[in-house]
Amino acid sequence: IKLDPVYLQNTDSVMIGSIVNIEDITEKVKLENMRSDFVANVSHELKTPLTSISGFVETLRINEDIDPKTRNRFLAIIESESDRLKRLIDDILLLSFIENKDSIPIEDVKVYDVFREVYDMTSYTYKNKDIDINYSFNDENTCILSNRDYIKQIFLNLIDNAIKYTPEGGKVNIDVLSSNSDIVIKIRDTGVGIPKEDVERIFERFYRVDKARSRDVGGTGLGLAIIKHIIKYLNGSIQVNSELGKGSEFIVTIPQKNFL
Ligand code: ADP
């Protein structure tokens, strides 16, 4: 709590009273701590691939006669760490854009078309992974007054996670139910699941249940934080049901009148 007393004097400099302004700064301090934690996390996350890149470049520079096989292996690491750096920067910029944007373009969004775009993209990205992806829409013509990029990002991050955290041979189901009042997007997978104690935390920036697994599948730890902010902006909600070793279900509800 911050106290800001102001003393009142009359014209003869005699104290006649005081005004005390009491301000609860708990939220302010919390926000500031979150901000500095975020900066520390960002620095750490960016430094990790950079350290690896500069280390391998240095090794290649010093060892001129390195055998071609090892050289190629090192180059592949440099390439994948650079990709990771790019993904991280893209996600950090996107998160900051979403957090700081007061207004965005609003248009009539045909949900099925946005979904198909994401479906085609992710099917291509994971063409070598054996996952059975199914989807159903109760109305393929449904439109929502919203922002196309935001709706696309919700599909993209949730479907990408469902595929990433589901081992080969598994299933991903996407159901979209629209009514006059809202649109409900359900994404279910038969993947690794999330421990109960972690469910609350997965929407925090850079929080991963299993850091090594997230890294191996190319995660940045920002996907769900981005979605959380988008959904808040759209006045919607997100719910998670998950069972460890069995799978997860993410349910997003967006009201039709999300901008009124
Ligand atoms: P990441 O880039 O690590 O995937 P996200 O913010 O998208 O970051 O997700 C945070 C964490 O939540 C992931 O690291 C993972 O542990 C967990 N997670 C998200 N989606 C799923 C899912 N469908 N199945 C299991 N775990 C998931």
UniProtKB/TrEMBL annotation:
An individual GO BP term: cellular response to phosphate starvation
EC id: 2.7.13.3
Location of the Histidine kinase domain: 41-258
Catalyses which reaction(s): ATP + protein L-histidine = ADP + protein N-phospho-L-histidine
Keywords: ATP-binding, Cell membrane, Kinase, Membrane, Nucleotide-binding, Phosphoprotein, Transferase, Transmembrane, Transmembrane helix, Two-component regulatory system
Gene Ontology cellular-component terms listed: plasma membrane
Main subcellular location of this protein, as a coarse class: membrane
Annotated GO MF terms: ATP binding; phosphoprotein phosphatase activity; phosphorelay sensor kinase activity
Group of enzyme by EC: transferase
Subcellular location as annotated: Cell membrane
Protein name: histidine kinase
